[in-house]
Amino acid sequence: MASLSLLPAPQISTMATSLDSRKRRRISLDGDSILCAHYIDSLPSLNSPDYFLKPSMNELVKREIETPGYCSRVPDFTIGRIGYGYIKFLGSTDVRNLDLDQIVKFQRHEVVVYDDESSKPAVGEGLNKAAEVTLFVNIACGKERGGRHVSYKLKQSAERQGATFISFDPEDGLWKFLVPHFSRFGLSDDEAEDIAMADQTPGLENHVGLNGDIDKMETSEPELSRSLPAHLGLDPGKMKEMRMLMFPNEDLDESEDFRDQMTSLSKRNGRPSQKSSQRNSQQDTPPVVRKTPLALLEYNPGNDKSSPGSILMVQQNKNLAVRKSKMGGFELDISHETPLTDNYSRNVVDAALFMGRSFRAGWGPNGVLLHTGKPIGSSSSQRILSSVINIEKTAIDKVVRDKKEKVQKELIDSAFETPLSLHKDLDHEEEEVVFGSFSLKLQKVVTDRVFLPDICRNYIDIIEKQLEVPGLSTSAKLFSTHQVMVWELIKVLFSERQSTEHPIYAASDNEEDMMHDVKEESAEVDTEALPLIRRAEFSCWLQECVSHRVQEDVNDLNGSGYLEHLLFLLTGRELDSAVELAISKGDVRLACLLSQAGGSTVNRDDIMQQLHLWGRNGLDFNYIERDRVKLYELLAGNIHNALQDFTIDWKRFLGLLMWHHLPPDSSLPVIFRNYQLLLDQEKAPWPVPIYIDEGTAGGVVSNTKHSDLLYYLMLLHSREEEEIGFLKTMFSAFSSTDDPLDYHMIWHHRGILEAVGAFTSDDLHAIDMGFVSQLLSQGLCHWAIYVVLHIPYRRDHPYLHVIVIREILFQFCETWSSMESQRQFIKDLGIPSEWMHEALAVYYNYHGDLVKALDHFIECANWQRAHSIFMTSVSHSLFLSANHSEIWRIATSMDDRKSEIENWDLGAGIYMSFYLLKSSLEEDANTMLELDSPESRNESCRSFVGRLNESLAVWGDRLPVEARVAYSKMAEEICELLLSGLSVYPDRESQLSCFMTAFKAPLPEDVRSSHLQDAVSLFSLYLSETGQTPA
Known about the structure:
With 1031 residues, the chain is an alpha+beta fold. It has 41 helices and 24 strands. Strands 3-5-6-10-12-11 form a 6-stranded antiparallel sheet, sandwiched between helices. Strand 18 (362-363) and strand 19 (368-372) form a beta hairpin.
């Protein structure tokens, strides 16, 4: 891959030679030191060894002495760095007491002036002024094609930064541009890499040896370039390891010859600076220039099963000889493991990479993926990997399929349309954004936390109806149940109550009783009681979430081990059941302790002191049931001791932390932070997502440390700082489902939480685009556009909405145009009708319905395209079928915009002129009126005939045969009308001139022959009359 390097230029070398190395430490003039403080304060300081000034430091001192105040008005002051570039400040510049080392910093392909914004002066002061910047960039490319390309790219880069491009010299690598003031100007590393990659040409001239002999070009595999894998996001070391594994018998001598040859090239193109030489000396091998990629022509597996086959490589130039590569295809024994993967040993991330060519994965509509790396070949122990193209279909519609993998209409309604209809019924605020001559109304949901419970309840009702759909898979039921839990938690954590002056609720030992008291009171409660009420609601929610897990563990006991049974009941806070079970077993004392579980901290301290007292007195705990000791530890608040040799899920652990370890008046943020602290100390179970916690998730999902969406909601509720760093992870598909492409409910979570002010973010476009893809896979184009309109507007991507909406309209035109409900829905969203007509025009044009395409091109004001279709495909068919009214309608609809249409007078204007001229000639013939000047009648026809001929010449081969026939019909009718009124002409010469007009028209040969006979007869009569006149 071509790389950008910095080269010295003759100009800067000349300018730098006057720089004395002593100028950085001592100002010398005629051998005497200048120690005057006045002059020192008037001078700038520069200590970097590779920087230079013009005028030089010595010249500044000399002129300051000769002309006091010279440093306050230095003309065309220039500062530069050898091998990097220089800046010439236009006009007079005040350089007094400037620390140039801190102000001006030249870096690779860029220059920074006043990096510290706080110390930057106003525009026009100091060095923050207009200047001409010259930077050195050099790209190994052709002088003509490459120079133009790089110059264009550099011009674009300068304009994006607010600079004015001046020139670029590809020979010297001088890039000049003008800046109005300073900050940071130049090329970033990514831009430089892109220019170098884009400019890489397929020719051989830059990749052959120094002798330029193309025939000596090796066609075997070159050594893997380190820059190419890095550009593709791969590890160069692993790629080299894979290459050595796949090609163990490669000729090393040939590689060394190639390396020596490339070393000579790198020496010729390298930048001779001190730092560059130091870097090169530290490298083990010189940089390798990748050879020209060879095209993959065909793959021949061969008839012999033992033969590994071969891949034939040819140059694009047909004159070059076809040579086989040394290695026969990509051979890899299946007993070896590919270094890049864990267990897919017969696949290659990018097999074409080893041929010097890169293929990217390509996504098509509805989850179609094209990629490389499928294993093909014989069925023997040797598998052959070849660079072939695979087409796969991603299950983007998994959420609407039942357990038989069939799409159900009920699931589409409950997963997409019904929730979106609910979302649309909520209050919205609109923001009109103008895009050129069009505008869009971007939407955003607005609601209040007081109404959040009703919204969550409506979403829960939709999900519960989805659970009633017959044939639902087990995993789908699990995910739907989890969504119900999510909406319930959102209601608990983020809803608010209307406050009033009521008695303050004290911390209750029984949160269920507290919830019962709250329900009996008015919905309006005191503000200070809200945290305790929220805690009680969260406790009830948590009990409901874990109740089924508790029941599963109890059922596994099969009635044995009642103490362990009690322990399971306490993990779900089922105190009533635990007390009843203890009483039924006659364990009254334990029942009394259980009845006070999770209550006052006094009781916990008493039990903890009793356990410590037993320990100090040497009590042998072997005489006490182990499970009973665990119960005592749990009642004392020692949850870790109670859970020894005992595994529970993260939600029950969180419940034990809240119910038995922390004080009963602890707020939810305190509880969540304590749990997070235990997570950081690895003393708590990880909050794994539901599909790992209760489902069967395999593959990469189970090996990645994902967290449940419920946990992220708790973090969001307890956050203290404004910045939230986990939003993208929180709203990823993996936080609630094992389907990485399912965003159908996450999009609603994000929208509602953002509407109630839980957070604000404009960097979650992946959620919107993922949901749009799901909707489009089901043909719900109108809802997809609705979702796009809810994407927050960003100034760095101002045309995102326009691009996505137009792409939807074009790609799925057949879907939304065939359904009137979708079409009207899109109109009601305020989408410009011109975009819809343009999409329909392209659709009908593609399918050959040019009449409809023409109408839609007119509706979308694409006058040039409409005019072209009218002339080449529509007008002649209408004319030959005598549908003149339709031609007139179409032509007049474009007449007002004829100034915007190229060749209007020689296109649709021909037809309008024909009808007007024909009408005029027929009117004259019917009224038998003689024109004031019959010559004007002939002149009008002659002008029309001339335009017909010119139109035929301009349109040329674009006009089909039928259009030429239509032109002949028009000419024939006009000539017929013209010649039918010869009697009104005063003399024979005028009559003969009418025949001359007819002869110039594009008439059929038989008509032309007939007119010729009439002209001969008239001319004979003219001669006879002329001969009789003298007599």
